[in-house]
Inverse folding.
């Protein structure tokens, strides 16, 4: 069995796909396959794939039902022990990343690192916690571009839920860790550089993300809903009280300085 399947989903992003392909092909570590699922691109993406197809294990270009349908198609073709979702426009941080990750004898079910976000040329690091709690996974996220998932987990947890538009990968992490108690490990290194202009980063989609997350909790953990409603209310009250206190302290300091 090969160690890793890298799955790239692409649609009309030929420049981004070029960056992704080259970052994969330049890796020192070679025990992987690269799968590309294209959604029927018309911008030259297919020609680019054909140019590199000798080093691509499997590719297809056809209309799909959305990003998670495309990702699931890649999973169904994958043969690696681990999976990495590295979509077009995202690329591995350097040529040694995969060598560093897999240069270990004991590996957890989910191995995740950090990401460098590229916000129109300005890069900044986002780190993820060593301990993944229900609270963090409920409100936060893990980057699938920085997570290596043991392929057999999709047999246990399921494929990505195609009824959700944005948070199906987060639903997978929530179920895998909080329901099925799979093993995981955080590596303190940047795995990939990701485009900050993706669908989950756009402010106009934040309301949908919040709604989809609420629906996942209601569907999978209904007994927790009332507890977290109360927790959110208490957090909001605490933050409001803290804000009032800071304002009053500032006013007193201002008066003292003007005394």
């Amino acid at each position: 069995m090969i160690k890793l399947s890298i799955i790239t989903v692409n649609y009309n992003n030929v420049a981004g796909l070029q960056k992704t392909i080259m970052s994969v092909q330049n890796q020192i570590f070679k025990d992987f396959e690269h799968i590309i699922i294209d959604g029927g691109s018309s911008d030259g993406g297919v020609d680019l794939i054909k140019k590199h197809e000798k080093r691509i294990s499997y590719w297809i270009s056809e209309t799909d039902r959305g990003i998670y349908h495309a990702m699931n198609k890649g999973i169904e073709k994958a043969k690696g022990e681990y999976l990495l979702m590295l979509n077009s426009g995202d690329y591995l941080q350097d040529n040694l990343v995969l060598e560093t990750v897999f240069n270990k004898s004991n590996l957890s079910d989910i191995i995740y690192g950090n990401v460098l976000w590229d916000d129109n040329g300005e890069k900044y690091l986002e780190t993820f916690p060593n301990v993944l709690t229900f609270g963090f996974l409920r409100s936060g996220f893990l980057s699938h571009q920085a997570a290596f998932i043991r392929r057999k987990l999709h047999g246990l947890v399921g494929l990505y839920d195609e009824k959700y538009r944005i948070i199906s990968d987060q639903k997978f992490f929530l179920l895998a860790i909080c329901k099925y108690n799979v093993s995981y490990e955080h590596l303190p290194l940047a795995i990939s550089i990701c485009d900050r202009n993706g669908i989950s980063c756009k402010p106009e989609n934040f309301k949908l993300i919040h709604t989809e997350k609420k629906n996942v909790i209601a569907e999978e953990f209904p007994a927790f809903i009332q507890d977290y409603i109360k927790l959110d209310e208490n957090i909001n009250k605490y933050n409001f009280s803290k804000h009032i206190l800071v304002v009053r302290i500032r006013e007193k300091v201002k008066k003292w300085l003007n005394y």
Summary: The chain has a mean pLDDT of 89. The radius of gyration is 21 Å. Residues 225-257 form the longest helix (33 residues). Residues 229-259 form one domain.
